[in-house]
Write a structure and sequence with these properties.
This protein is mainly beta. It has a single domain, classed as PAS domain (Beta-Lactamase, 2-Layer Sandwich), CATH 3.30.450.20. Helix content is 14%, strand content 38%. It is built from 3 helices and 5 strands, in the order ββαααβββ. Strands 2-1-5-4-3 form a 5-stranded antiparallel sheet. The C terminus is likely disordered.
C-alpha cells in the first residue's frame, strides 16, 4: 500500500501547506513540487473525477469529513485509484484547512492518522 498526507488551505485557490515525503512513492512527485505549486494536485485528477474533487476543495463545502475515491495520474503516466480521507478545520475569516490522507486502498476513518501522528 502507498499512502501520503497533505494539508491544504482552501481560500479561493488551493494552497498546499504540507505534503509528506511518502507522496513521491504514491504519485511520483517530490513534496516540494506541490509546496511550490510546480505540480497541482487538482491537475492530476482524472477528468471524470474533477467535479468530485472541486466540491471537496471548495471552501464552501459543508462536509466536515469523509472519504472519496479518486483516479489520479502518477508522474509515470499511469492512473492510480486512490482513497482520499479528509477532515476540514474551519479557521477565522472563512479560512479552511483540509487534512487529506491518500492511500491506494480503502481506508477506514478510524484508522486515519491524527494530525499529531502524521509525519508531515
Amino acid at each position: 500500500m502507498f499512502e501520503a498526507d497533505f494539508c491544504l488551505a482552501l481560500k479561493g485557490k488551493l494552497d498546499v501547506l504540507s505534503a509528506s515525503e511518502r507522496v513521491e512513492a504514491l504519485l511520483g512527485y517530490k513534496p516540494k513540487e506541490f509546496l511550490l505549486s510546480t505540480i497541482s494536485l487538482e491537475g492530476l485528477v482524472h477528468p471524470r473525477d474533477v467535479s468530485v474533487v472541486r466540491q471537496l476543495f471548495s471552501p464552501s463545502s459543508k462536509d466536515e469529513s469523509g472519504e472519496v475515491k479518486v483516479r489520479v495520474r502518477h508522474a509515470d503516466g499511469r492512473i492510480r485509484c486512490l482513497s482520499w480521507v479528509y477532515e476540514r478545520e474551519k479557521k477565522g475569516r472563512g479560512f479552511t484547512i483540509l487534512n487529506l490522507f491518500c492511500a491506494t486502498r480503502r481506508v477506514s476513518r478510524a484508522k486515519m492518522p491524527t494530525p499529531k501522528q502524521r509525519p508531515i
